[in-house]
Amino acid sequence: MNSKNPPNDDDDQSDAELAELKARNEARIIRREEQKRDAPIAMHEYRSAEQAQRDRTVQLREERKLREEILAREKK
After folding, report:
1. What is the pLDDT of residues 2-25, one digit of tens each?
2. Distance (Å, rounded) from C-alpha 8 to C-alpha 12?
3. Would you call 2 helix, strand, or coil by DSSP?
């Protein structure tokens, strides 16, 4: 006497769902590993961009200050 139930569509569907869940989980793990690997590079790029923006702001302020000094001299 066989105590196992014969396979049916539900078993196939649940196997397919399980395989899909495993595939999604693996993809999620791979994505997280890629993010961890890329994080230092991304942070460096972010900080470099911030510094470039600060440098540009300093440059623009200096240019504005010079322009205002020239205008002040011309008014005298």
Report:
1. 456 555 666 777 999 999 999 999
2. 7
3. coil
Eight-state DSSP code of residue 76: -
> 21-39 in b/e burial notation, b at 16+ Cβ within 10 A?
eeeeeeeeeeeeeeeeeee
**Dihedral-angle region of residue 49 (phi above 0 means left; psi in -120 to 50 means alpha; beta otherwise):** alpha
The residue ranges of every structural domain in the chain are 9-76
The predicted model scores a pTM of 0.57
CA end-to-end span of the chain: 112
Q: Which helix (H) or strand (E) holds 16?
A: helix 9-75
